[in-house]
User: Which sequence fits this backbone?
């Protein structure tokens, strides 16, 4: 009888412990991109940093594979995702109510946290398509990107800068994850993907039976493009990352940056914890993906357009990094 009572008490105690720890657990979701891109492992790397301190924060972060930048910004604003990774150019357009946000207007609740690796507008073409420059895309079957991705608008901007309209090509709108297979099957001639390097997607596209070229995006049209859009900059894709491509030199193109965003409504303690753990463990974080090699605490605060979230600001003040943040982003 006594034994039964003791067992009962132990069970009650254990149940209380379990419910207490569940009560404290905060689930956080980070929206990324296709699993062969760099956003997906980046979301994983950010999650790892904060999950390792579960005992301190009670945060359990997980990643979601999504359609990409535009989807992530909108989902963060709707409260469907806590955080999202997005291109610096899409962040700018959302804040200013341009491009995809032209009808909705400026997205006032968008908040930036920090910026991450550089991404390049990457144009991949089969050698037998004869495509050696953007101008050669006329008349070809080109995947310009899925709705919700960052690359969709980048492809349109590049084509426009070269005087090519969507009517001049046969556009496809499929996810980047499917593009290498379509190219290798000869069902498309080329595809655009705005992505960090190296990545599994371009490795897959360049290592099949069909020979593939990474096409440079250069010339006077690009000068015009850079002039018209403040967030585009010259960039280079290192040939050594893709030894199976037919390129013999590094590839000149146009680039942006990956950034982490959230909503104004996200609790400050969560944003603080994520920011702090990534910055305080930056050398460990950088080992998680080769695209992170160039990251410094300073350059991770460059390229933001949305006001910085107050939870992140708390860490930047504490650590003295606040000096790198433009005054206009501190609200
Ligand atoms: N830049 C792409 C996008 O915004 C995603 C790239 C990646 O997943 O690494 O959709």
Assistant:
């Amino acid at each position: 009888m006594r034994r039964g009572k003791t067992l009962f008490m132990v069970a009650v105690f254990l149940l209380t412990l379990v419910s207490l720890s569940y009560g404290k657990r905060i689930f956080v979701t980070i929206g990324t991109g296709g699993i062969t891109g760099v956003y997906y492992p980046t979301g994983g790397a950010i999650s790892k940093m904060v999950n390792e301190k579960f005992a301190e924060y009670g945060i359990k972060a997980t990643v979601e594979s999504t359609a990409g930048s535009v989807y992530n910004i909108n989902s963060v604003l709707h409260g469907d995702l806590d955080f999202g990774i997005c291109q610096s150019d899409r962040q700018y357009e959302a804040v200013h109510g341009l491009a995809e946000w032209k009808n909705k207007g400026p997205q006032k609740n968008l908040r930036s946290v920090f910026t991450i690796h550089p991404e390049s507008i990457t144009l991949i073409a089969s050698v037998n398509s004869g495509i050696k420059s953007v101008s050669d895309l006329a008349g070809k079957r080109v995947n310009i990107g899925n709705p919700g991705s960052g690359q969709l608008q980048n492809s349109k901007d590049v084509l426009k800068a070269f005087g090519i309209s969507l009517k001049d090509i046969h556009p496809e709108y499929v996810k980047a994850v499917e593009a290498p297979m379509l190219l290798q099957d000869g069902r498309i001639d080329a595809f655009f993907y705005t992505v960090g390097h190296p990545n599994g997607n371009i490795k897959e596209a360049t290592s099949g039976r069909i020979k593939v070229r990474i096409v440079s995006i250069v010339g006077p049209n690009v000068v015009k493009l850079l002039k018209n859009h403040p967030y585009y900059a010259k960039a280079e894709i290192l040939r050594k990352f893709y030894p199976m491509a037919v390129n013999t030199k590094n590839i000149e193109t146009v680039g942006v940056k990956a950034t982490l965003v959230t909503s104004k409504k996200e609790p400050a303690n969560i944003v603080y914890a994520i920011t702090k753990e990534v910055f305080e463990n930056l050398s460990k974080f950088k080992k998680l993906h080769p695209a992170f090699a160039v990251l410094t605490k300073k350059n991770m605060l460059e390229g933001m357009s949305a006001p910085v979230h107050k939870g992140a600001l708390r860490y930047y003040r504490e650590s003295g990094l606040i000096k790198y943040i433009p005054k206009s982003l501190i609200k």
